[in-house]
Amino acid sequence: MTLTTLVSGGSANSREAAINFTIEQDRARSGLHLSTALILEGLPDGKLPELPPELAQAIDIKRIAPGCFCCIGNLTLRVTLNRLLRKPPARLYISIADSTHLAQLRDFLSNAPYDAFLEMTPDLAV
Question: Which of 80, 91, 125, 126 could form a cystine bridge with 36, CB 3.0-4.6 A?
């Protein structure tokens, strides 16, 4: 099961900084770097600038065009998730710009077929 956290609120940079902080906390607690993937809504940059280079290279970062995942029918999210889950990471962070439909997104990810692959963790609000 991939531990999955929804990240919302604030600017794109603040969401990425919050994800970075969480990754660093996990690493400090366990002493390990878990395989990690990020699905980030919109952003043009391909790396998290605050991560040490060895970690940034080890993280699988996917970018999705801006737009509410619920309202656009989840097609892009489904395709991206299905590709990621072929070789599932231990941790997955999904960063979204608008938290209006956060509950619907959580429900989508908690139901079949994703309930067999993803273990939802508490949301990270920025």
Answer: 91
Residue 104 C-alpha from the chain's centroid: 16
59's CB contacts (< 8 A; 6+ apart) are 23, 36, 37, 38, 48, 51
Best CA proximity match to 6, nearest among 79, 93, 99, 115: 93
> Confidence band (pLDDT; 50, 70, 90) for 52?
low
Are 106 and 95 contacting, i.e. CB atoms less than 8 angstroms apart? Answer: no
Q: What is the DSSP letter of 67?
A: S
**Cα-atom radius of gyration of the chain, to the nearest Å?**
14
**Prediction pTM value:** 0.87
Residue type, 33: H
Helix (H, G, I), strand (E, B) or coil at 14: helix
